[in-house]
Amino acid sequence: MAKKDIEPTEFKNLDDTYIGKLEAAAFVYMHDLKKAGFHVDDDIDKDPQDATKGFFFRHMGWLLAYKPQTWGSVNISDLMEDPVVRWQQKNYLIIFVLGGLGLPTFIAHIGWNDWQGGLVYAGFLRVFLSLQVVFFSGALMHADWAGEKTYSDKNSSVNMSFISILNNGEGNHNFHHTFPSDYRNGVQWYNIDLSKWMILLWCQLGLARNPVTVTGFEIERARRRQERRNRHGGTVEYVDEDHEDLSTLPVMQWTEYIEQANTGRCLVCINGVIHDISDFMGEHPGGRDLLHQVLADDGTSAFYNGSHDHSSHAKNVLAGMRIAVLEGSPPTNPRG
Ligand SMILES: [Zn+2]
């Protein structure tokens, strides 16, 4: 992740993303991770943990074949505006040494006069095991054979609820990748999701606000859509038709579309349909900057052929923002 328009105290799901990995991964990689959109683009070279390269690659191979220059970059200026994130970034090494190794050593020394035990077991061994659990469960949750693609099969993620016990709630990973802006992984009240509960607690304490959620209706619709798709061997694409019929929408010429966009409305043309995405700019899981690149332009290729394969849910969200149908075809070089 590392990607979104996140106000410092506004939470979307940061699991499996820049911040989550930054905290978990070895600190020596921090400098490169901060520049990369970590695991934003799934299952391609730009994804540092590209699941198509196999289980071991996703577990630790990506660290051994460490090539941050091939990773996609994402503008994370929104995160870097947060003074706490900036402070952590600047002082990560000292925080790790003092908090991760020094503190357990100190406690073991004061408590039972065993600083070596504290350093080895509660320091180094704990860090080693924590990283192994993070890497292993991350690899498992992108292995086809390990779980269910409950909501979307547009990427390699699967749901494996019981893994949530090990990784603080990230087990329902297919949900996370289908609804990446939702702060939850385990959407049911009984799903183990420590991260969700912590964010809710922070909301109660006033430390976070506006946790983003997808409606239960959309979640159930995605589940049923995927169920139907599974029955047809994954060959049929279902997009619901409960949005405005194209024939009922006004027709707009390209010049009028550009004029409207120049008034400050966030308009994008996709597949010959004009969409007003003004209210969606801050909610795009891939970040606001990607949307800015296609405003007042033909975004068809970016939406369908970009690095991220949009789910049926995403297509329905887009369909809900239709405002007009384009007359004719977009110019071949709209901005030329
Ligand atoms: Zn993932």
Question: Key terms for this structure?
Answer:
single chain; 336 residues; mainly alpha; Flavocytochrome B2, Chain A, domain 1; 2 domains; 4-stranded mixed sheet; disordered N terminus; binds zinc ion
Describe this entry's structure for a reader.
- It is a single chain.
- The protein is mainly α and 336 residues long.
- It has 2 domains: 18-204, no CATH class; 246-326, Flavocytochrome B2, Chain A, domain 1.
- It is built from 14 helices and 4 strands.
- The chain has helices at residues 18-24, 30-33, 55-64, 77-80, 83-90, 92-112, 115-140, 173-178, 194-204, 216-231, 254-262, 288-292, 300-305, 312-319; strands at residues 251-252, 267-270, 273-276, 322-326.
- A 4-stranded mixed β-sheet has the order 1-4-3-2.
- Helix 3 (55-64) crosses helix 7 and helix 6 crosses helix 7 (115-140).
- The protein is elongated, with a radius of gyration of 22 Å.
- Bound molecules: zinc ion.
- Zinc ion binds at residues 16, 39, 142, 157, 173, 177.
- One of its GO terms (cellular component) is endoplasmic reticulum membrane.
- This is Cytochrome b5 heme-binding domain-containing protein.
- Belongs to the cytochrome b5 family.
- Residues 249-327 form the Cytochrome b5 heme-binding domain.
